[in-house]
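Most newcomers find our protein records easier to grasp once they have seen one. Read left to right, the backbone structure tokens trace the chain's path through space. Nothing more is needed to start thinking about how sequence determines fold. An example says more than a description, so a record of this kind follows:
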Amino acid sequence: MSVTESVYDYKYENGRRYHAYSEGKYPVPNDEVEKDRLVSDLQHHAFRLTLDGALYRAPIPQDVQNVLDVGTGTGIWAIEFAEEHPSAQVLGTDLRHLIISSPIQPTEVPPNCSFLVDDCDKDWVFRDQFDFIHTRAMVAAIKDWDRFLGQGYANLKPGGYLELQEITFPALCTDSSMTPETSPLLRWSALFTEAADMIGLDASGPLKLGPKLRSAGFVDIHAKQYKWPVGRWAKGDKMKLLGRFVMEDLMDWLPSSAMGLFTRVLKWSREEVELFLSTVRRELKEEKSRHFYANV
């Protein structure tokens, strides 16, 4: 779908490029470095592996008709869903225009799949209601969960489903003696949470979605929590592979997560951020003795 020129009016900061559409709402870059991380789709593979290969848990029918993927990123979830459900018309939306400005998607997508640059924090203006709305890893994007869930409810057909697949902060460690004072990774997690809070983002927000879903009008609410190991320290082939995906994705995401927030909000210099992240990476490589994990 066509976009206005203002969408390409990038903002450059500390050697990183950020989107111009709804500038400042999403503190993660949309440059080549971030594009390369997204193209690897490690996070997508981690979610599928967590669900034993499935794209979703909602009990939707195989012949579902109208589907919305909010925060589509590279569009891989929307593309794979469209391929598995040829009856569906799948629309993927994202505030960042990586899906348009850079060739990070396959040159050919299913005919029942399309994309739109859109800010899900603004009023949703869709022609039709959806049978299924899916989101994933929006913890760093949504400031007002009540508004988001209310709009999701209003845009679902009666009997439709909303599925939220979320990563939550803080990062955790099996060794309770590890604290943000002794662990660079846990300090990064605490600082990210602090900086996010200062701009209106609740990094632990996904843990509080149950009551918010009820307040929005949803019923038959189900929640399931998974643990993602960081590194290959967990037992079993599945968990070791999952830990590898999580580790590699986190290594790439560290500068994207920290550079904008830490310099703009915490007033660190670029050099301070880079030096600090080097200590985080060094600790992450000690995966045999440092058993970190995240709740999903």
Notes: The chain has a mean pLDDT of 87.
